[in-house]
Amino acid sequence: MDGYSYLTFDQRRKIEALYSDGERVVDIAAKIGRSVAAIYEELKRGYTGEFDRNKRPVYSADLAQQTTQENIRRRGNRRAANQ
After folding, report:
1. The predicted structure's pLDDT at residue 83
2. In angstroms, rounded to a whole number, what is the distance separating the alpha carbons of residues 69 and 35?
3. b/e per residue, 3-30, with b = 16+ CB within 10 A?
4. Radius of gyration of the chain (CA)
5. Is residue 26 a contact partner of residue 36, using CB atoms and an 8 Å limit?
6. Which terminal residue of the chain has fewer beta carbons within 10 Å of its beta carbon, N or C?
7. So what's the pLDDT on residue 75?
8. What are the DSSP calls for 15-65, one per residue?
9. Sign of CA dihedral 11, 15, 18, 20
10. What is residue 72's predicted lDDT score, i.e. its pLDDT?
11. What CA–CA distance (Å, rounded) separates 16 from 7?
12. How far apart are alpha carbons 80 and 78 in whole angstroms?
């Protein structure tokens, strides 16, 4: 399973800032160093149910972090949930 890693909370904050500034997902992926698919999955994970002034879904890094930790706890992997 080498090569897999979770996004850090700092990376989620950076995604939130860039996305709310109107950056394209492709550009965010390049700046964060992750795949475009990973950014899209992250945007779904942190979707608040609202839309911004440009009709884009609102992303919350806090919500995404909370969801990730709950998912990890639910499957029993305690080490990754405490990071």
Report:
1. 58
2. 21
3. eeeebeeebbebbbebbeeeeebeebbe
4. 13
5. yes
6. N
7. 82
8. HHHHHHTT--HHHHHHHHTS-HHHHHHHHHHTEEEEE-TTSPEEE-HHHHH
9. negative
10. 83
11. 13
12. 6
Backbone angles phi, psi at 81, to 5 degrees: -70, -25
Residues 43-61 pLDDT 10s: 999 999 999 888 999 999 9
Please give the residue that has the higher pLDDT: either 74 or 25.
25
pTM of the model: 0.83
Taking CA atoms, 38 is separated from 2, 5, 43, 76, 78, in Å, by 17, 11, 9, 22, 22
